[in-house]
Structure formats: C-alpha cells, structure tokens
C-alpha cells in the first residue's frame, strides 16, 4: 500500500507540486473507494461467472460457497475451479501424485488461494484445481479436498495416492479425515527451513539433504549417524517430524515419484503472483488464461522432442549414467547382479533386472533405473530405455495436452 509520505515525495518529484498531507489522504481515499467499489461489483457477479464457466466448459466443476452463518445476506465464502479438460488430462497422462498448497492474495482484498498441482510425464507442474477461500483452515481444506476427491475419482480413502504439502495443520487434519490411506509427504524444504533456524552450519545443511534423499534405510541411518557426530541435538530436532513424511528411504514404493519437496506448487504460486493482486473474477480469468497459454506452449514443445523419453527425465538419467564410472558389476544368477561402488565407503547393492529392483531402493521408488541398474543393463547389453516406466514417455506427455 502506498504510504502518504512516499506519495507526497512522488508528487513533488514528478509534478513539482508540494501538496499537503490532507490532500494526499483525500486523493488516496478517492482511489481506494473506486477500487473497493470495483472489487465489490465482482463479488456480486460471481454466480454469473460460475454459470458462464459451466456453459463454456461442460463437465467442469465450478463451486461457489456462501457463509452458512449468514445465508440471508449472501456473503461470499469460497470459489472452486476444476476444468474438465484438466481433469481428463490428469487421468490420461499424470501419476497419482498431487501437491497441495495455499498462498495469500496480494491486493487490497484479503483471502487465500488453495491449489492442487500434479506432475506431468516431464516432471513439470500440471495445475488440476484451485480455490479462493477466506483462509487456510481445517474446514476450507476439507471442502477443497472433498471436491478434489470427486473430480479425480480417488477411491479407497486415497490408497495408492501420494499427497505432498507443507506442515499446515488444517491440511494435515483434512488429510487424516478424507485421505487416511494416502501417503502424505511433507515438503523437506519447509522442514529444513524450520530446522535451520537453530542449526545454521552450512555443512549440516549438506547432511540434512543427504539424509532426506537417501533412498534406503541403511544409507539413511548411516548419514543420520554422521550428522549425530556433529550435532546430536540437530538429529533429535530432525526426527521430531516422522521420517515417513519427508525422508525418501521411508516412502512407499511404486509411486514413480521420489520427490521430497513441494516445489511444483511453489512454482505455480509464483507463476500467478500478478493475478493475485486482482479481485476474484479478474483473478480467475488471469489464472485461466495463464493455464491455457501454458498448455499450448507445452504442446508445441513436445512436438519438437526427439526420442521416446521426456527431456527432463533424460537429464536425470544422464546424471545416473555419469555415476556408473564409479561402480563395478558382477553377474549373480539370471537377471541378477551385484554392483559395488569403488569409491567412498564401498557400498554394495543387488540388482534384479527381471523384477526392476535394486536394493538401493531408487529404481522401485522413481520408476527410473539408478546408476547400479544402468551398470547392470550395460553389462548384459540391453537398452536403458527398456527399463524406464512408461509414465515418463513422450507419448504419455502428449496424451494430457
């Protein structure tokens, strides 16, 4: 908000006029009154906007909620959007992994925007649904998650699904009530940010991320023990949050997602930061157009891709391939191999190419061959592409767009 002193200084500099404080306050009041009038007008048209979205986007879910304690006054409470095209795209080309997050409005009107963001075959953000609410509470998250469950056909209380979020208490409670069987990961970046307030050493930062990204319990315990040698209190503070929520070693296998953060939601919130300055209908229109443009751009990019695997995934594979120079491979029966690191502490893992498994855990968790599996694949003269889950293919990417 423009402060009076700053306003006076700007007028003096740009218009060479020395105006009084009272005139600045009066001018500011006129502007704010007009602005608020425009904002109020948009809220009176929210039901018309809902009907127009439903008319132009058949099959979409557009929900408007009024304050149940003041139904006679028609006081706005929340607005939910999930376009049918985004629903169908999610079901056709995205994994059962959803990031949930909330962000504040930036303008004069107070409120928050909740979002549900999936990840496409190229591991980039895919907005599924979003909602305007008064604030993040258990009730607002339950309302949002309840609608999302119906739109995405989530059954069995979320069994087989992964939800990534921060540590917002209202969301945690909503998850326990509506999706108790889903794997609930909590963003390691937020956990680290809280942990770092007390444990500031740069070296300890490296230990934290090594612990979070260890893909099996043996490596997790080893790295945790190394941190304990430096700061026993630091380890105690880390473990205050159950590692099943933030440490890769404890994630359920088969999700084809090894992520320990909620960066895609952060990316979405940042991409719509300009829209968050506007009143509700103008905000929704800017978000809608932003997503339309993004889908079109992703479609155009995918048409130019060569090969069968999406480029972001290929980049990750190249990093794993680079690490194969530090391992040696021994045959261990049909489809089986022993892979040993020749550097560091000489870790040894068992790979079974017939079952697509490695005892390091990464192969089963990510759906991508780790450096140990890639070494075994090279050893028997096979193609790495044949051991990548189809969810990462260019063909799947083109299905959702």
UniProtKB/TrEMBL annotation:
PROSITE patterns: ZF_SWIM (PS50966). Pfam families: MULE (PF10551), SWIM (PF04434). Keywords: Metal-binding, Zinc, Zinc-finger. InterPro entries: MULE_transposase_dom, Znf_PMZ, Znf_SWIM. It comes from the Eukaryota. GO terms for molecular function: zinc ion binding. Residues 349-381 form the SWIM-type domain. SMART domains: ZnF_PMZ. This is SWIM-type domain-containing protein. It comes from Aegilops tauschii subsp. strangulata.
